[in-house]
Design goal:
The protein is α/β, with parallel strands linked by helices. It contains six helices and ten strands; from the N terminus they run E-H-H-E-E-E-E-E-H-E-H-H-E-H-E-E.
């Protein structure tokens, strides 16, 4: 699928611990955004997750139906299995960060690139490109996203599983408490929009985001897990003024 490289740095929406959740594809639909927050749609969705073997995630992304409810249907039109070149990408699973994940090397593919179609009775049909990586979230950021190869615009961390789900370290802690975002910014990787649900990751974000940005403004709500709830939030950050002194 060479069209992934039409732009040198495709604009990316990254969903950490994505599982089988398709909400970002609906939320970032261009027509949905015109009706809500008016965010610019990404050119590529990158999903990362380390699910227990063959339970969910990239193993379920095939040429068939991915999701359906009374309003929306998401279908996978085309897929391509992909492998991570371990000579160029440092692939590792830190057991303090991921309790259940296993390296698929030598057993199956590392990723799936999928073309999906989103149909809705509220918006016209729209196609999106999804790269699903079988990687631990922080490793995915450090080894791929922070390099600046992609233009990372959005981070979604609504389902990390920090309690019983197997995730030992939130990407919010990694970036904003431990300061890994500072290293990434040197590579022109500086995502300004974050999607969070109420919980531990949200508290970490609120406690440390002002160490790295002037402010973080809540733009509104994200699609909730359960209809009617307002416990998912979209934040946009404002950078500190750059020092222009010579």
């Amino acid at each position: 699928m060479n069209h992934i490289w039409k732009n040198n740095r495709p604009k990316v929406f990254w969903y950490a611990s994505a599982g089988d959740d398709c909400r970002p594809l609906v939320f970032m639909h261009p027509e949905y955004q015109k009706q809500t927050l008016n965010l610019s749609p990404p050119e590529l969705f990158i999903f990362s997750c380390l699910p227990p073997q063959k339970t969910y995630g990239q193993d379920r992304i095939k040429d068939n139906l991915l999701y359906r409810d009374q309003h929306t249907e998401i279908t996978c039109l085309k897929t391509e299995k992909m492998f991570i070149n371990r000579n160029h990408v440092e692939y590792r699973i830190n057991r303090d960060w991921s309790r259940f994940g296993r390296d698929p090397r030598g057993k199956t593919h590392d990723a799936v690139l999928a073309l999906v179609e989103i149909k809705s009775n509220r918006c016209s049909p729209h196609n999106s490109l999804v790269l699903y990586l079988h990687m631990e979230n922080n490793n995915c950021f450090d080894s791929i996203l922070s390099s600046g190869v992609f233009d990372l615009k959005y981070i979604c961390a609504t389902r990390e599983g920090l309690a019983l789900g197997g995730c030992g370290k939130s990407i919010m802690k990694h970036l904003y408490q431990d300061g890994e975002i500072v290293k990434a910014q040197k590579n022109n990787c500086d995502p300004k929009t974050v999607v969070l649900s109420r919980g531990q990751a949200h508290r970490i974000f609120q406690s440390h985001i002002n160490e790295h940005y002037v402010k973080a403004t809540c733009l509104g709500n994200y699609i909730p897990e359960h209809l009617g709830e307002r416990d998912h939030f979209v934040y946009q950050m404002e950078s500190f003024p750059q020092n222009t002194n010579t």
